[in-house]
Amino acid sequence: MNSLIKCLIAVFLTGMTFTSYAQDLVHKIPSDALAVATFKGKNLTELMSLTEFNKSFTGKKILSKFSRKADKPYSSVDDLGFNLASSFYYYNQSNDSVTYNCFLSPVKNAAQVDALYTWGDYKFNQKGNIRSYYNSDSTEVAHWNNEMFLFVVAIEKKDYFSRPEVMERFGLTEDYPASEVVADTAIAVDASEDVPADSIAVESAVVESEDVVTDTALVDSTMVDDDSSNSFFKNQQQKKSIIAAWTQHMVDEFFAGTNKTSILNNNDFLKSQDAQAEATIWVSGIDKLFNSYMPAIPYLKGMSFFNGYGSGNAKFYLEDKSIRLTTSMTFSDEIAAVFKRVHQRKLNKRFLKYVNEDRMIGYMGYALDTKAYLEEYPKLMSKIYGSVYAEEIGMAADLLSLLLDEEAIGKVVKGDALFIFNGLMQNEVSYKSYEYNEDNFESKEVMKTKKETLPDFLLMISSEDTRLIDKLIAYGAKKDLVKKRAGYYELSIPKSPLSLYFTIKDQIIFFTTSITEIDDIAANSYVAKISGKHKKTLLSSNYSAYFSGKKLAGKIPSEEFGGAKKLEKANRVLNSLGDIYLNSNPIKGNVVSGQVSMDIPANQPNALKYLFSLIEDATK
Amino acid sequence: MPPKFKYPLSIFILLCFSSCFQIIEEINLTKAGSGTVNLTLNLSASKTKVASVMLMDSIQGYKVPSKQKIQKELDEVVAYLKKSPGISNVQKKVDFENYIVSVSFAFKDITNINNVNQDVLKKLKIKGASNSSYTYNPKIQAFRRSYQHTKDAVAQYNKLKPEVKKIFKDASYTSIYRFEQNIASSENTLAKISKSKKAVMLNTGVLGLINGKTDVSNNITLAK
């Protein structure tokens, strides 16, 4: 089943066809979905035609995989039965007892979908125009008709099933009982009992869908061995049968269309959608989603790592000139206020006087307000641990404030820095080896040399108050770890081939591995060269990064790859990569956002075709 | 029988995080069958990497040994050797500047070193060489270096993380046997005979020993 699902997912992600008619299933997604991922087939088909896709390396792979078991080979992904020009969805629906991972796809030709199952040797049954497939324990269910295909993977919530009242209600016992416990395995529940609403609904489904239970080989409680040593397996079977019945009920409701509240009623979801994006992921609340995925760990009870985090989304764009991923997250007023304070610092403009983009391969810049960060940090911690360790956190916060002079630290390390990666360099290192004379193989110690590859970088850190650093330098000089040179210092690292130079100038602390660079900085002769694009990215963002694969290509010594062939492949991949940019946007309202993008080479018609060419290249 | 070592030498944790290393085994054998052994482990070619590893407390889940710990464990080796029957004049040399460790000792009879060698090699976790022994028959003037590859060596090697496996690629093993008499023949084609005809040297990669592709056993016949 896995391979079929993998192939179907591959089709989701590469979905494309000529036949296009409006068939958006988004309205079928329930309003209480915790997360929704959308893949827009229409946008993808506009970037690459079906004919082109079928002829591509990936297209051929998918078709050959499906053709293997079919009685006639597939010539087009269009024949798989899905409407690849419409949108495909994944959504997560959770309650206190179960998590459903749902894959929803538009169907164009149900008979063709039937054929996929038939040829894959996966048995399904049909009632009316609805086909159903179940895995061995019925916790994985696929239903489809002429309009849509829904595949659900249901996962139980362990902490729910370990509650005493739930265990009693469902006749569950301790997995590994200390003493012999006689368990009643009946699922039957008195409907008058005080139970959660979702459970009542499901229990009624157990009764209603009896025929399904028989069809799908659900575990009959009478089949379960009464031996208490088998408690674990008995419980597992019992839980799976309960989950299976709930899942069946959920899928039946989905196809019956009884659920009237659609995700389209959720404004936040609607706002997160962008017609131009090829794929989007929307999360209603990180906290809720995190709790639904994470198992209940007793140690973490009461802690809330994502307290104050609201909804979030990510959008993936394949454009003519670039591939772009944008992300954004909404925070509570309290957390947003922290971000605003901490993010008020901008990158030191003077850093730009020491950037030469002809030399650099990449950079990473960040700007935070150290003083604000130190002041806000205890508050953030109390948000996470507050409900459990409120008093302890309160005391720790007070102690931290007492010990630290946030303002003084904020002057020493203001909070902005820029790391510029200039490539790799090779330094010669000597080592001891042995030589043997021909006469009697008597050994003689000899010194040999070899080259070691080292990074070449420049790091700049803003500092208003350098007195502490001056003292550290004086101490280092006394201990012979720091040597004074003309306008800069050399840090000696024992046995290391890496030379590190540093100096303090213009309220900037410079660290570099290049003697030429530190000479130029010290002598005021540094020649800067920076484009408007980099200038804007660096100065307008709290976090920014850039990497050029092309500039690195050809600069990696072959020793690092263990052979010319591997190096050639690495260089080919690096050369085919466009420039990569990452940056955060200024906080807007309570929304923190950012993006990462990669330029695509000029000879590529669009980003999708470029991605396919990369896949093909990587397999060569 | 002297007590067996209980713990692996911590320096071999460093070996796992070097980029290449050399193992050198030298035996000088007299006509009567006594002689000296010198075992050397040379990590000098990876000294920058080893030096940076030694600055850390642990790496990839392995505890990085301190200089003191390495010294202490080597002292244990020396103490063990000193207690071993037929072994005398035990000496160790540790060069932390270049990360070279060597242990030398004298033996009364070549069989004395068989037990010791096995334990030391086990301790060095060089399991491929664990079925290794030496015999010398003064009557017929024949020296035999037996070596049988064990599958355990490959199994142990396969358990290593890929980044640790990499270091064995350039690691080398050198054995030198020197005699008082001239060498009449040496069977292993990988071994070279010196100009003086009194020494045999075999230099090979450690990986070949692990995977069983290299055989270092040799039958050396000495001139009567």
From TrEMBL, chain A:
<protein>
    <recommendedName>
        <fullName>DUF4836 family protein</fullName>
    </recommendedName>
</protein>
<keyword id="KW-0732">Signal</keyword>
<feature type="signal peptide">
    <location>
        <begin position="1"/>
        <end position="22"/>
    </location>
</feature>
TrEMBL record, chain B:
<protein>
    <submittedName>
        <fullName>Uncharacterized protein</fullName>
    </submittedName>
</protein>
